[in-house]
Specification:
Blueprint: E1 5-9, H1 16-30, E2 36-40, H2 46-53, E3 58-62, H3 79-85, E4 89-92, H4 95-100, H5 105-118, E5 121-126, H6 130-134, H7 138-149, H8 155-158, E6 162-165, H9 179-196, H10 199-204, E7 206-210, H11 218-222, E8 229-232, H12 239-246
The structure holds phosphoenolpyruvate (PEP).
């Protein structure tokens, strides 16, 4: 049985003090959550959030990291720095990073390899734009993103990754993919991993849906055979809403 995972992507929201307060509000609401609970604050909030989450069942992830170990990469953050803080997960290849910060499938792959080498669990984001969906290339595009992200990743490593299917047109728009659309693409991803590695590996990989997940739609989405929870943006900023999602 795969564990269902609710991960909150706080994006560029919350100061360290606000982030601490949100954890204090969230922790009692999710203490018995059915799903694994991860919050991903902005980098500057990570120390405060790791500290506030100590002794709770909330795990902490970063929203990005660089693929080199150290050196002259102004503004970047390494896997070792995240691990030293107590961070366990890292979102990689979010569509906002691809769109605004020139992330490519190739840089995502380098980051995935580095995260796995160091022992951080990558949450790898893939997904199509509205134009690509209308062109009928969703499955091809998502399969390509998954294949490149997992290049040179061993079968044992692949079992441990989380993949988040996030149609770009559904992110932050309030326009959720239908349950059928989300399940269809998550199944496409699982089938792709089965072809790349084995069906045993594919059955182990956690595949989330992301895109306007909220307290009202999470239960139905997470009940699908190939959807193992969600990557949640806006609704993860409200403790009450995120706790409903974490318990879905
Ligand atoms: C996201 O940021 O990954 C996301 C899915 O955002 P939202 O839930 O706000 O659509």
């Amino acid at each position: 049985m795969r564990q269902t995972v609710a991960a909150g992507n706080w994006k560029m929201n919350k100061t360290p003090s606000e982030a601490k307060a949100l954890i204090a509000e969230l922790a009692p609401l999710v203490k018995d959550a059915k799903n694994k609970v991860i919050v991903c604050p902005t980098a500057v909030c990570l120390p405060a959030v790791v500290e506030a989450a100590k002794g709770t069942n909330i795990l902490v992830g970063a929203q990005n990291m660089y693929f080199e170990d150290k050196g002259a990469y102004t503004g970047e953050i390494s896997a070792d720095m995240l691990l030293d803080l107590g961070v366990t997960h890292v979102i990689l290849g979010h569509s906002e990073r691809r769109q605004y910060f020139a992330e490519t499938d190739e840089t995502v792959n380098k980051k995935v390899l580095k995260a796995l080498e160091k022992g951080l669990c990558p949450i790898i984001c893939v997904g199509e734009s509205l134009e690509q969906r209308e062109q009928g290339i969703t499955a091809d595009l998502v399969r390509m993103q998954v294949k490149i992200a997992l290049q040179n990743v061993s079968a044992d490593q692949a079992k441990t990754v989380i993949i988040a299917y996030e149609p770009i047109w559904a992110i932050g728009t309030g326009k959720t993919a239908t349950t059928q659309q989300a399940e269809e693409v998550c199944k496409t991803i699982r089938d792709c991993i089965c072809e790349l590695y084995s069906c045993d590996v594919a059955e182990s990989v956690i595949i989330q849906y992301g895109g306007s997940v909220n307290a009202a739609n999470s239960a139905e989405l997470f009940a699908q055979a190939n959807i193992d929870g969600g990557l949640v943006g806006g609704a993860s900023l409200k403790a009450a809403d995120f706790s409903v999602i974490a318990n879905s």
